[in-house]
Design goal:
two-stranded antiparallel ribbon, globular, single chain
Length: 93
């Protein structure tokens, strides 16, 4: 993880929308740094998708987030979705 990185946010989003997106980014960070509860991660992703319904924008945000943090949204999502466990982490997914 890189120290002191910025989150890729769209300034046209409302405060609530930014909170939803940040919540998902936090879940991704938690996936890499400790572990996440699968259900909560997927709920957070669903809320993120309501704010960012476009696949293209999701990929761009994912690339920007990975460049600044070193964490892949795509990899985290795929590993959590594929896991049959209640709690999932990057090193045990």
């Amino acid at each position: 993880m890189k120290e002191n990185y910025n989150y890729p946010l769209d300034l046209s989003w409302s405060t609530t929308e930014m909170t939803e997106v940040l919540s998902f980014f936090n879940q991704v960070e938690k996936f890499y740094e400790s572990k996440v509860e699968k259900e909560l991660f997927l709920e957070s992703y669903a809320a993120f998708k309501k704010v960012v319904p476009s696949k293209m924008q999701e990929k761009q945000l994912g690339r920007d987030f990975e460049q600044s943090s070193g964490y892949s949204l795509y990899r985290a999502l795929k590993e959590v979705e594929a896991s049959g466990k209640r709690f999932v982490s990057a090193d045990k997914a």
